[in-house]
């Protein structure tokens, strides 16, 4: 019985051949669609286009309504385009009142509130999701229980606290009451628990403590989840109306955009044309933000929703 000797070079070549990656399906080519598959694909595209049209049509109508004369806003039968396109309505918005101040206040409150929420939520999410301490799960359940309390119930106690602190009609009153929300903590906790614990253990072996692990390992891996929380928080502060209406006294100095939109309705009537133009202007920053972070939003929502364990 003869024994065949295999050289090391031949063995390595055979191993590399066996370990060669399988060619992706995209390169091999896909099987042609059947007649039924093509019909389903056509109906799927039609459904997507129809849904997009339904969601976009109110925005299109609002934009053209902002260009109408005020006397034609409720004309019968309704028309998409008025007798003339008044582009001057967008300029008249800033001449009607301190609308530029409202925009500046909304930007300041939304950006400052978002930064505070991101700081608090990421740190709290790391404590609930990565650190082990006694009573952690019970505290987290109680923390989540605050999500079931409506905002309207908290308005009077929060106003009394702001009055006690002397923050009524100030920027801190518009920012800090909603800076400690359970939603952001829950979102970050779910994402953090999806990160392999071996990464943090390896950093701990190298001498890194919890703070360094959080700042240099966990937080850089959570960019998508941070982007999701940033967008949701920014929109929440940007669109908030009830709390700024209650805690603000001098609307001309500390009023935000939702209050500015309501200022177009007064005792002498409502300037619907200017109100629609102001609403279109107020949608521009949030639309740009969502489009700019669209990729991170999709990735962050998918990973945060499926990564918890």
Question: Can you characterise this structure?
Answer:
The chain is mainly α and 309 residues long. The protein is 70% helix and 1% strand. It has a two-stranded antiparallel sheet. Strand 1 (265-266) and strand 2 form a beta hairpin. Helix 5 crosses helix 9 and helix 10 packs antiparallel against helix 11. Mean pLDDT is 82; it is low at 1-13 and 15-27.
SSE inventory with pairings:
Elements: H1 8-18, H2 25-28, H3 35-65, H4 88-96, H5 99-129, H6 136-145, H7 151-165, H8 171-175, H9 182-193, H10 197-205, H11 210-221, H12 223-239, H13 242-247, H14 251-254, H15 257-262, E1 265-266, E2 269-270, H16 272-292, H17 294-306
Antiparallel strand pairs: 1-2
Helix pairs in contact: 3-16, 4-16, 5-9, 5-12, 9-12, 9-17, 10-11, 12-17
